[in-house]
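Quiz preparation item.
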């Protein structure tokens, strides 16, 4: 079985080589020590995560419950009358379906899937970029898309990608997609990354959003014993990223994190989002004033 993060399960490996899972687990640890593969929860994947990007049909069936929970929680961050940008991806498509209920909203996007999800929302204005259609993910890319975003200013950008690490931030496997995502980031005062736990700790070829520009990460609760994801969340929070964790059951107020797995995630920008599982204990900081947001926007334009 191939998991949502591209890993092959240990059970499947044991079946193929006709041996026990205990033996496979021991061999996988030895191969990881030699740098020949990376272990994932219950499986293994080729090292580094620099793999070819999956197309929309494959992505749409991966981690569906997690994406639903993330989209529910992310939608709660959007207020009536806001102007936002939403990037391409299956998770952002799920978000768009929920944004259709937010009155007075203006959504700028390069994604045909996002635009389609909002097409019949009569109280939401949809603005599409120009550009060349990239069929694998139904997104507009290229110089036309980037030029149409010049001079644009919105309150928030919602983006997803192929991988997220504290060291490099958000990344993707396609150069054209990465370039447009960077233009979307430049248009926003705040950047919200939507990434399920399978993308945490995965690094792909092209950086889209460095960690210091990510305001908030909306993710799902990592499964038990997924130390890699928890460690990455800790590292992201240490660099000032606000962490909002949704329940993987599709309910943003999902199960609480077991006490034995709670981790303190310090960070100057930490806050608690209603409906998020308390992965760490922290006091919510006040939202920045319009003047402070203006200064941040001025710094980014420089």
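Solution:
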């Amino acid at each position: 079985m191939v998991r949502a993060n591209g890993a092959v399960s240990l059970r499947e490996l044991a079946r193929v080589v006709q041996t026990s899972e205990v033996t496979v687990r021991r061999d996988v640890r030895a191969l990881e020590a030699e740098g020949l593969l990376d272990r994932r929860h219950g499986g293994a994947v080729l090292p580094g995560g620099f793999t070819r990007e999956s197309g929309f049909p494959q992505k749409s069936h991966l981690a569906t419950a997690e994406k639903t929970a993330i989209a529910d929680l992310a939608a709660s961050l959007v207020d009536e009358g806001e102007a936002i940008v939403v990037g391409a991806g299956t998770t952002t498509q799920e978000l768009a379906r929920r944004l259709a209920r937010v009155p007075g909203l203006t959504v700028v996007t390069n994604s045909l899937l996002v635009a389609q999800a909002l097409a019949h929302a009569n109280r939401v204005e949809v603005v599409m970029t120009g550009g060349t259609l990239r069929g694998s993910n139904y997104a507009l890319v290229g110089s036309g898309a980037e030029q149409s975003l010049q001079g644009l200013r919105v309150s928030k950008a919602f983006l997803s990608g192929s991988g997220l690490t504290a060291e490099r931030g958000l990344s993707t496997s396609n150069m054209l997609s990465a370039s447009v995502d960077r233009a979307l980031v430049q248009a926003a005062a705040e950047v919200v990354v939507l990434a399920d736990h399978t993308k945490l700790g995965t690094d792909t070829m092209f950086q889209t959003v460095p960690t210091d520009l990510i305001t908030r990460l909306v993710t799902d609760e990592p499964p038990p014993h997924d130390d890699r994801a928890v460690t990455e969340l800790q590292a992201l929070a240490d660099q000032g990223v606000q962490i909002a964790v949704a329940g993987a059951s599709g309910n943003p107020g999902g199960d609480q994190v077991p006490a034995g797995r709670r981790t303190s995630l310090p960070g100057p920008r930490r806050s608690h989002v209603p409906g998020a599982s308390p992965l760490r204990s922290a006091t919510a900081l006040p939202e920045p004033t319009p003047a402070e947001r203006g200064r941040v926007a001025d710094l980014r334009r420089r």
